[in-house]
């Protein structure tokens, strides 16, 4: 587009005159350049994170395929993961799900092989309790080398085309909307149920009070009936005793002679009256029945009209046998279905129905074999919040609906299978009972973390990045998850993820949620501090805390090793030194191991010609050489950041001229890394006194007796102090001293000496001497006055 516009702008049609302004052309062209650059930037791929986390993605894809019953895809992903990443931290889970996927599609041999590998490599894994029994048997056969028969082949999984996927997506959306609507309805129903439960509880309290009153009245009635029954029993016993007495008398009468026949008739009459009295007083009782039978034996039917067609003929002896049907107990227990998966930490309810199959009214006690952590209890279906241990009295064939309510322990793992008994026992007959097993399968989040680093070898000051992949490979969502990344003190965070807070040695993220089959990545960057020591193995630990279930899982990264780094620095407070030629100078030097490994450093020096040197260990660290401090040629071994104190002693040449300069240096070389060294450089400036003597006098010829004078000038032209300056003047015999200013210090046989303690650099001293030619000196006599100067420097060297 740019080229064509430019071309058209520059193209001149034949026969036409056109004026083209170049700045307009370029303005039109370059105005489109930003658009093109923007398009190029959009087409370029975004820079990817340097850490490889494909294993986490492959695994989570295979896991989700298994949950959707797409076992072939699950097998492909898990197999590919193990081939591409044989040392992945997810290896145990990949083998586990690969075995289960093979089992689901009927590949029994492969299923047994991988499950046997899982059980062998990870014998302590709690996931063993979630495996199907048949799959465990296949693994056992594989371990024993027994043949494994293939399962019957099932139809291949149908291919899902795009339209099916779209339909599935629409169905999922509709299901989601329905689920949300159902959730709203369930919330309303729960609210109504709660209100109903409150009302039911009030009604139950009232019913309990009414029941207590009824039971009290029934107890009083039972006591009265018991007293009446006891009284009736006593009267019955008295009647039976009277009958027995009458029979005894009758027997005795039969043995008497015929003469007593009249007396026997009277006794018979009396017995009949007694029997009738029993029948009248205790009608319907066994005593009355016996009395009627006795009367029949005597040929008397009483009361009249009660005799049936089966009654014995007159004079026939009969016995009446009576039985009473006893109560027996029996019960049926029906369990309703539990949910396919029960979420850990959440309540569950198992519907139950108890039916009285006995032939009389009965109540039933309820017992559970659930461990205490389940908090299991029974409750009437109408009052699920009120725990019961016994049913109310049930009539024959009556049903009682109840629920078994509990909570799945938070410690249960995903897929855990448990079965516990419930027992229902008759109150009438304890031997009449039924036991049912309640089977539960737990659904729980199963959190895993994969921690990867982009570097396994680090240098101090370098940056290292970590990617932590958080995965929920359980069937339930994880809520209230806290992620805590613990890092060593050698690390300094420089790239903190959004939403994370920093604590002592850790980065923390709260309130995370992971759905089943979801993966979340957290990227963190650290800087390795300069003081990190060589060969240290550093790692980070990711703690994943599920607050809802009070569970904690920890996962560590691969170790990153701090590489060896050699380093040394040297420093001294003396950069430039003024020295007197011949002076021995002591220079204190401090050496520091700035590397991260313990090592030795050799010492080398460069000094001026004719100079000599030595190195001493500054044991006292006072910068002064002591007599007991040894000569050294190396320092160390020094630990990282450790310092050594050295004295560098140089003996300068005495012949060096004042104002001269020379350089000296000391170098410390690492024995581990010769290219790592440190040096201190010294500048030596030679400084000494240099005195000059000059004479100013009026020369010419002098006559005997004539007086003249001269002036001696002493100047320190050097850069240092002169001490013990001595000026000596020898006056010849032809001359005699008249005066001296200043006065001389000593005189001996014509030798005059002037002394000065010090003469600073640039300082000048003048001596004026007045003399006279002695009389009698012959003409033409040559007279000479000799003057000399001597001095010493601060070291005592004489000049």
TrEMBL record:
Cross-referenced InterPro entries: BamD-like, OmcB-like_DUF11, TPR-like_helical_dom_sf
Coiled-coil segments: 172-249
The keyword Manganese is annotated on this UniProt entry: no
TM region positions: none
Protein keywords: Coiled coil, Signal
Boundaries of every DUF11 domain copy: 701-780
The organism's place on the tree of life at top rank: Bacteria
Entry keyword Signal: yes
Domain Outer membrane lipoprotein BamD-like: 52-127
Xref: PANTHER family: OS06G0538200 PROTEIN
Protein name: DUF11 domain-containing protein
Species, as recorded: Geomonas paludis
